[in-house]
Design brief:
Elements (H helix, E strand, L loop, with lengths): L12 E3 L3 E5 L6 H10 L8 E3 H9 L8 H21 L4 E4 L5 H13 L4 E5 L4 H11 L6 H14 L2 H7 L3 E4 L9 H6 L1 E3 L1
Parallel strand pairs: 1-7, 2-4, 2-5, 3-4, 5-6
Helix pairs in contact: 2-3, 3-4, 5-6
Length: 194
């Protein structure tokens, strides 16, 4: 687990081929981090399985008004299908969604077990002030400040490093961000994907 900025001479954290689960509330920097990994060619774009992108593909951006539970069920069914395809081919999959509750993670862990794939969880922790600032910069009408606060509270309660390890994560690493004075590009440099 990382605790803030690492000295320049520290080796990158190695993430093995398998399932990489991003864990953090909206506006915590998950998408920006993944975009930097892709830009640096540390992962290929197809490795990223984003619930937001799937929702936009299937239902429009922003999604058309529909039964939220049915929409979510369809989005996560498609997410799981894409992750299964990657893991079955022996390739990594990066699950980019909030994943702050044990219920959200249990499905992902079950998929990884089917393929004997190690699970690396990357935590995105931010204080509420930083989250709300980042949220206001994103201008996403489908996520409110109240949503950000609620997800952050759940993450604090249910996504500690110890909790994630107890659920079956092979490794848990904190991804530094604004609170530590680290940009997404700088954070991406700290990881190496095998």
């Amino acid at each position: 687990m990382t605790d803030g900025p690492a000295p320049a001479d520290v080796r990158a954290i190695r993430v093995p081929v398998g399932l990489v689960v991003l864990v953090g509330p909206p506006a915590s920097g998950k998408t920006s981090f993944v975009q930097e990994l892709i830009a640096r060619r540390q992962i290929d774009a197809e490795a990223v399985v984003s619930s937001d992108e799937i929702r936009a593909e299937l239902f429009g951006d922003p999604p058309a008004e529909a039964d939220r539970d049915a929409v979510d069920a369809r989005v996560f069914e498609e997410r799981d299908r894409r992750i299964v395809a990657r893991l079955a081919a022996g390739r990594s999959a990066v699950a980019e969604s909030t994943n702050v509750t044990p219920q959200a993670r249990v499905r992902l862990l079950a998929i990884a077990r089917r393929f004997n794939a190690p699970v690396t969880m990357l935590r995105f922790t931010s204080d509420i002030t930083d989250l709300l600032q980042q949220h206001s910069e994103r201008r996403r009408p489908d996520v409110t400040a109240a949503d950000v606060r609620a997800y952050a509270a759940v993450a604090m309660r249910e996504a500690s490093a110890d909790q994630l390890r107890s659920e079956g994560a092979a490794a848990v690493h904190d991804v530094p961000g604004r609170r530590q004075g680290v940009t997404p590009a700088e954070a991406a440099k700290r990881f190496s994907f095998c």
